[in-house]
Amino acid sequence: MKKNKMRLIQYAVTIVVVIILLCGIFSIIKRLTGTSSTDKLSSNVSKEQGEVSEKEVDNSVPMTKLSVGVPEGTIRVGETMKLDIAYEPKNATNTELKWSCSEKGAVKVSEDGVLTPSKEAAKSTVTVTAKATDGSDLSTSFELRIYPEIDPSKPMVAITFDDGPYEPTTTPILDALEENYAKATFFCLGQNVGYYPEVVQREYELGMEVATHTTSHKQLTALSSAELETEITDSINALKDAIGVAPKLMRPPYGAVNKDVLTAVGNHDLCCVNWSLDTEDWKTKNADATYRMVMTATDGDVVLLHDIHEYNVAAVERFVKDLQAEGFQLVTVSEMYEARGETLDPGTIHYRTDPTTEVSEETTATTEEVGE
Ligand code: ZN
């Protein structure tokens, strides 16, 4: 009996020793070949995404608050935007963010928070999300409206609306512009801005150019210098109250300017912009007539309309689409001058930009193809 027991213990000890030896050999092999298959997979993924370094990330002080400030809700392809990324506490150990977008590949955000939209993202509205990678589960999102890139070698016009805002008509006009990713410039009357501040806010949020048409539509050339000053100052303040920024452009009522008006306007860093194509919408009072006038526009025109007339809504709904179909880019006054390399200096007056003389690359390519 005793002998059998001893043999049993000997067997047991041998088995344990063999197991320990096998484990040791196995772990040496593992070390020699590098990593297990699962480890390999995750390290490859990390390398590809360039997000997590091979070292273990220190998440010991997690974020408790994360916010991303966006300077504007719109951007054009070809532009970049610096985001204002803020987090708490200041000593959070892992502040790396993972960015995603409702439309894959529509935007890129660099490590220092510079957003760039892709060409393919033109004419789309996307939701951009930033997520903490420290396991805190914090995330924040914002909406971004992406306008197409301006091609200076292709035709463009600046559609302008005077005398608004007037909610019943300005709103459907904005709807038509929004739907087609078209921009326009609104020369607002200070007194109307006070009645419909939310309409002006929407103009601004959609990336339209918000400008002044004075406070109460008086003929500036007939005013005393004190009255002139009030007409300008009050309208600037009305816009500042509504959207938080001062306008850069002013359209004098009836287009009436003289040296004194230009000096006074220039003192407020404003540039006067009249027009080169008058639709005479106030005279014809007819959607078809307005539509036909707008469709005569040529490259570089500044087109005058009024957003306070009901009959203009149907005209806008038609010409925005049709101008775009004819190859016109619908841009703001400032965008058109910038694209054409022309300046809008304070105290000067402008009517239109020169048409481009460059031949676009696309036209050249088509001609060559036809030639072959
Ligand atoms: Zn007017």
Helical amount: 25-40%
What value does the Rg take, in angstroms? 32 Å
Structural class based on helices, strands and sheet pairing: alpha/beta
How would a textbook summarize the main sheet?
6 strands, parallel
| Contiguous runs where pLDDT drops below 50 for at least 5 residues | 33-50, 359-372
Question: What small ligands are held by the chains?
Answer: zinc ion
Helix tally equals 12
Helix and strand succession? HHEEEEEEEEEEHEHHEHEHEEHHEHEHEH
Distance between the termini: 105 Å
The count of DSSP E runs of length 2 or more, i.e. the number of strands, is 18
- Percentage of β-strand residues: 15-25%
The whole-number mean of residue pLDDT values reads 88
Shape: elongated
Please supply descriptive tags for the structure shown above.
single chain, 39% helix, 372 residues, alpha/beta, 6-stranded parallel beta sheet, binds zinc ion, disordered C terminus
Structure description:
The relative contact order is 0.11. It is elongated and about 125 Å long. The protein has helices spanning 2-32, 37-49, 167-179, 190-195, 197-205, 225-243, 259-267, 281-284, 287-294, 311-325, 333-339, 361-371, and strands at 65-69, 74-76, 81-82, 84-88, 97-101, 107-109, 114-117, 124-132, 139-147, 156-162, 185-188, 209-212, 249-250, 271-273, 277-278, 302-306, 329-330, 349-350. Helix content is 39%, strand content 20%. Strands 10, 11, 12, 15, 16 and 17 form a six-stranded parallel β-sheet that branches. A four-stranded mixed β-sheet has the order 2-9-8-5, with no helix packed on it. A three-stranded antiparallel β-sheet has the order 3-7-6, with no helix packed on it. It is of the alpha/beta class and 372 residues long. The chain binds zinc ion. The site of zinc ion (ZN) has 5 residues, from loops.
